[in-house]
Design goal:
Elements: H1 5-8, E1 17-28, E2 36-47, E3 51-55, H2 62-70, E4 77-82, E5 85-86, E6 94-98, H3 109-119, H4 123-129, H5 132-144, H6 160-172, E7 178-182, H7 190-207, E8 210-214, H8 218-224, E9 227-231, E10 238-243, H9 258-276
Parallel strand pairs: 3-8, 3-9, 6-7, 7-8
Antiparallel strand pairs: 1-2, 1-4, 4-5, 9-10
Helix pairs in contact: 3-4, 3-5, 3-6, 8-9
The structure holds adenosine-5'-triphosphate.
Length: 278
Amino acid sequence: MTTNAAAMGPGAGMKAPFVRITNASLHYGEEDESGSLALQGFDLEIARGEFVAVVGPSGCGKSTLMKLISGLTPRSSGHVTVDGVDVVRPLKTVGMAFQNPALLPWRTVLENVLLPIQVVRPHRTAFRQDRAPFVARAKALLAKVGLTGTEDRFGWQLSGGMQQRVSLCRALIHEPEILLLDEPFGALDAFTREELWDVLQTLWIERGFTILLVTHDLPEAVFLASRVHVLSSRPGRVIYTTDIDLSRPRQQDAIFTPRFVEYVHDLRAHVSRARQGT
Ligand SMILES: Nc1ncnc2c1ncn2[C@@H]1O[C@H](COP(=O)(O)OP(=O)(O)OP(=O)(O)O)[C@@H](O)[C@H]1O
């Protein structure tokens, strides 16, 4: 593995793992044949501020990994800690975005972005007392992703790419320490997707939070992440890890360079082997 600090970005050089998963398993339902063993013998460490991507065959447990780290579904065995805290219930320090932006249609863009603040303690109480700082924060985030002027519109009045930008703002409004992204750009056309790569990379470079990105798109993983993990077929575990030693900020042209293509080919070979179970 390579460890070029310039390429690794804000999280580079920080040793203590922010996320630590040790020999974890996650079993849905009963632990007999009626259930489903999604993850087994799972080990993973993510440094604070690191941008990590996870790729692997369909159904190998990538989304389950998100649930494991966020505490939405508890592990069946092993250890999972985030910032040294045992994950046994849903964490408040997590922001999440999915392939489907799932904006509430009766709420405006601004109200959608503010939703986590209105739901999650302790922000809820502070919000009731004084909305202004939160509204200012939401507007600043919308400006950051190029959506100034859309605050009073509804999600269904926006394009898919714009909705996904709103979803990113909603995931970030409570200033989470870790952002979990489950194929957030999977439903978008190629040009919009690449625009959002830039938006996400800029947000990460500026704010330095930890990101775990699940994606089927290998160029997306290589463009965005500093480290990519490949999972085995179900039950998933990490079978291959590579550091992406490309300088930041990465430009769209980078995807045509031989080194970029080499990373993608290497990952494709490992995912292909994982699919075949070899
Ligand atoms: N709530 C659930 N109850 C039972 N089994 C589940 C549940 N959620 C996921 N599974 C099973 O766990 C396994 C891993 O699912 P998961 O969604 O984590 O995979 P994935 O890698 O994200 O899939 P994909 O790449 O297709 O999105 C699959 O076999 C799936 O059917």
